[in-house]
Amino acid sequence: MNNIARLDRAHVLHPWTHFDSHERDGCVVVSRGEGCDVWDANGRRYLDAVGGMWCTNIGLGREDMARTISDQVMKLAYSSTFGDITNDPSALLAAELASIAPGDLNRVHLTTGGSTAVDSAYRLAQFVQALRGFKDRRHVIARQDSYHGSTFLCMSVGRRAGDQPPEFNYKTDDIHHVASPYLYQRPEGMTEQEFEDQLVAEFAAKVEEVGPEKIAAFFAEPIQASGGVLVPTQTYLKRMWEICQKHGILFIADEVVTSFGRLGAWFASQEVYGFVPDMITTAKGLSSGYLPIGALIFSDRIYQDMSGDRYFASGYTYSGHPVSSAAALKNIQIMKAENMLERARTAGVKFQAMLQGLSDLPIVGDARGHTLIGCLENVADKATRRHFDDAIDIGKRVSNAAEPLGLLVRPLGHL
Ligand code: PLP
Questions:
Q1: DSSP E strand boundaries for 179-293
Q2: How far is C-alpha 213 from the chain's CA centre?
């Protein structure tokens, strides 16, 4: 273990890292990166198959990004966007996002990452519903196995196994959850279409149970990424959106993972699944991880209903950060100039075929994904889809075995 790994073990509290395995195994110290590859402190090369945290979309180590960032640092490293001040990169970025976002999603609230975008979306939903005269619309619906970020509020909205330890007293009173489109573990003998019908019916019933006049918004990741790469049937999301439309419930598409090329599109909601949400939250691929930034993109209809002698009480010191905004703008330019969305779609076909090829392995119960996101679900018994005992920690074992082979993957329980 080198000195950095020792210091890390002695002082760093990592996100979601088991205390005992951190004590026992320590960490891989990543020292350098180029394209899809990273090198550890000993010079060992790894294929970073998760793209950092599903975020290094244009690849690491690009000089054009480095130049853009350093030029902006020298020009204007920081300026607030609170009140009546703005800066060139943040206004240009907002305009660019409006031009690539679907429908009339032309308004942008810049944030520091995905969690802060989701947190602001929740508040915006309640705010605009109240301004439209629906003061009782304070409830939201989300789904099991969802991940919407790590602030207290985002963790209350999300519902992944293991994320609600009893010691954390999350907000529960007005947040409701319905089942996720977890196709692989659907009830025995049910077709995918029947399962979709059941999920849509459950959502409609939940809306009636809570009372449509009390619901502000529905939060949904187009593909539930951290909850196990749950890829829905093709028409499921549009049918959920239709129910929202019917009842005046705002559809918030959490596209923190699924935007900026991950599914070969700027945004998956319309381009992949055929509906225009009321709001989109995004981050990660927005700057390809070069600098932290997120965005809440919302409709002109919402903005029009908020005008007048009011303000939206949300924002962060680094909202509209000029350097992060310049990096995100450059990232979009690079994606356009290098035709990356189309290239992602082409590479995605090959990647998914290769992933499917792993289904023959005795422990792989399901190989699933879409374009450039994929996952293997490991099982002890393929016939019954029974998982291994949690104590076996199969995901971590696979990850530990992959590392010496030069491959970084992301273990998530049985995945
Ligand atoms: N929403 C989704 C769907 C995510 O996957 C994530 C992070 O993985 C977030 C929100 C939170 O983003 P951040 O970690 O940038 O706060």
A1: 215-220, 250-254, 279-282
A2: 29
Closest CA to 409 of 10, 50, 68, 18: 50
Helix (H) or strand (E) run with residue 33 in it: strand 30-34
Cα–Cα nearest to 53, from 285, 221, 265: 285
- The ligand 1 atom nearest the CA atom of 149: 11
> What is residue 297's predicted lDDT score, i.e. its pLDDT?
98
Dist. CA 115 → ligand 1 center (Å): 6
pLDDT at residue 26, rounded to an integer = 87
Task: Quote the pLDDT of residue 307.
Answer: 76
Q: How far is the CA of 121 from the centre of ligand 1 (A)?
A: 13
DSSP string, 154-177: HHHH---TTS--TTS----TTEEE
Long-range contacts of 384-391 (CB under 8 A, 24+ apart): 385/184, 385/185, 387/414, 388/363, 388/414
Q: Which atom of ligand 1 is nearest to the CA of 154?
A: 10
d(CA 115, CA 314): 13
3-state secondary structure of 364: strand
Of the CA atoms within 13 Å of residue 259, those in its CB half-sphere come to: 30
Give me the pLDDT at residue 348, please.
98
The DSSP annotation for 400-415 comes to: HHHGGGTEE----TT-
pLDDT less than 70: residues of the chain: none
Element (H, E) at 118: helix 114-131
Q: How high is the pLDDT of residue 121? A: 98
Give the Cα separation of 86 and 81 in Å (integer).
5
pTM, to two decimals: 0.97
Strand blocks (E) in 56-201: 107-111, 139-143, 175-178
Tokens of 55: 């975020």
Tokens of 109: 């609230």
